[in-house]
Amino acid sequence: MKPQGKWQTTRILGALSLATAFASPASAEMSAEELAKLAQNPVGNLISVPFQNNTNFNVGPRDGTQNILNIQPVIPIEVNSQWNVITRTIVPVISQPALVSGEDRINGIGDLQFTAFLSPAIPKGAIWGAGAVLQMPTNSNDALGNDRWGLGPSFVMLNLKKGDPWVYGFLVNNVWSVGSGSDASYNNFLLQPFLNYNFEGGLYLTSAPIVTADWKADSSQRWTVPLGGGVGKIFHFGKLPVNTQLSAYYNVAHPDNAANWQLRLQVQLMFPK
Questions:
Q1: The model's pTM
Q2: Which residues, 6+ apart, have CB-to-CB distance to 12 below 8 Å?
Q3: How far apart are CA 117 and CA 136, in angstroms?
Q4: Average pLDDT over residues 123-145
Q5: DSSP 11-79
Q6: How far is the C-alpha of 33 from the C-alpha of 92, rounded, in Å?
């Protein structure tokens, strides 16, 4: 194992050990299937810290491998008995392959995204959340992001019912660049439909492709459309419930020199109330 891999493994194990000490006893009162369905709700009343690692294959003219580790803490804030604000922050840690001969691989932080959803505390019917997404130019290297801020709307809706093994819905947002900067302006769309089937014991099947569009690009270079899926399972690290997923996606449409395959591994630390 490379030193960087050992460092990442040590950090994750350290986080697991620390989190176990603060794990809520309430998690013991929920079944593994209930925990799995709670983890599948983007606006659930649940503090969680997902580590989502996306490995993209055949990137660039030299068919390199790109790796993006998204650290995505989710924190719900109770406004009153009727409303919650669910915040989600995405911090991408990127390893970018060299695009031309003689260049080195670039490692660093990409642009941070922060989303806040206003959602009913006790939903009637479909569960939903509406809010805004903010993109911040936090990249550590010009090749890993854009120096302009971004802002746009975000919306999520899903179906989750007690006794029903299916959890399905979608998350959508669009981010426009705002203000000035030396990099080009952007107008980016994201749609993530998700479909999960839950078994007893916390095992489930999942599909959550991330469809994107760059509205500034030519029509032939605009869309990335993945198809695929995988499997997930709830485990316990001491008292701490941990949601794990492994899935793969093939991009049936993608811009030139973009990845055609993606392997996704996720470990989500859960702190149910």
A1: 0.88
A2: 51, 267
A3: 18
A4: 95
A5: HHHHHHHHHHHT--GGGGGS-HHHHHHHHT-TT-SEEEEEEEEEEEEEETTTTEEEEEEEE--EEEEE-
A6: 29
